[in-house]
Amino acid sequence: MARIFITGGTGCIGASTVQQLLLCENVEQLLVVTRSSNPRILHLWLGKALDRRVELTAADIGDAEAIQQLLTEFQPTHIIHLGALQSPACDTDPRQGMLVNVEGTLNLFQAAARLATPLKRFVFASSAAVYGKRSIYPGATVPEDVTLAPPNLYGVWKVAGEHLAALFHEKTGVPVVSLRLNTTYGPGRDQGRTSAPTVALKSIALGAHEGRVIPYRMPYGGRENYHYVQDVGAHFAGAALLPFNGIANLNIKGRTIEVSEFLQIASTVAHEMGIGDYCDLGVAEDATANLFVCDLEDAAVETTFPGLPRTEIQTGIEESLSIFRQQAAAGSLTLPSSVL
Asked: Up-side HSE of residue 320: CA atoms within 13 Å toward CB?
């Protein structure tokens, strides 16, 4: 039976990962560790009553002693490390970003190495931010073995995390998987630069509920690689529990299209759902180019963990809008103040 220690488990990806893990009968208990222990997004996927196998606790991964104590008491069989500060927070406060994203990751690896019973698996949430600009990779897709050239501090620290993962694997022999992902969209996504596509969808749903158009303009344009949030959760759950030995850095499955095409699909779906009159989406006149790489090659993750999902963008948008409309009706759907 699996006892899984998961950091960042109340965030967008974390909550979806928890939901996917609970679908597995061999999961005995989940210890969800976050700074706030706010279960709001977990309730989105799990309902008002959390599964009895889920335990929440507030802790800072930057506190090495606290993390060591939690691991020693819980004695996990698996760790999924999702907790991190995202790009805007890292840019605003680089020292705090490094404390959480590098030192916090180091604390977790060191504590895991001291466990009396070795882990069965460690899964690390890396990022496509480890790659450089799309223009430096000439191929049709970007595989995992290309030169890494992160465009910002967040990416630099994810590269550091992957190196820490490799050292941990070399020292302990514990199988380690680092998953690299781009733009996650869908219910629960409300932080980070690439939350913009989700904000666009929320503006349609909230506008439809309030009977008014809420215009939204994307702050960046160009090509973008999209992952539906439930697919991402399924990748992390699969990387933790499906058969695997060794160490791997893997791109997760997604779809790359133009930002403008994503917005057009959103408009089409909104019209099909009868709320197209409340759709006013576009790319801002002063939009910058998308900072992150796209066209991720994902053959390796299919070979390593066959059958993980890749939801079509139209389907992901439709499911997202349906949930956002329910949230709007319940009074729980919010938008950034800059949009309203």
From this structure: 32
Q: Give a yes or no: residue 337 inside a domain.
A: no
Helix (H) or strand (E) holding 17: helix 12-22
**Cβ neighbours of residue 94 closer than 8 Å, sequence gap 6 or more:** 153
pTM of the model: 0.97
Give pLDDT tens digits for 242-270. Answer: 999 999 999 999 999 999 999 999 999 99
Q: Tell me the residue type at 57.
A: T
Sign of CA dihedral 69, 75, 79, 82: negative
Phi, psi of 277 (to 5 degrees): -65, -15
Residue partners of 194: CB distance under 8 A and separation at least 6: 182, 183, 184, 224, 292
Q: What percent of the chain has pLDDT over 70?
A: 100
| CATH number for the domain harbouring residue 275 | 3.90.25
Helices (H), 211-289: 229-241, 259-272
- The whole-angstrom separation of Cα 279 and Cα 243 is 44
State which residues form the domain around 140: 2-183+227-255
> How many C-beta atoms lie closer than 10 Å to residue 243's C-beta?
7
Residue 21 token pair = 């893990």
The token pair at 92 is 């605003």
For residue 78, the surrounding DSSP H or E stretch is strand 78-81
Q: How many domains does the chain have?
A: 2
Please report, as a single letter, which amino acid is at residue 222. G
CA atoms within 13 A on the CB side of 217: 8
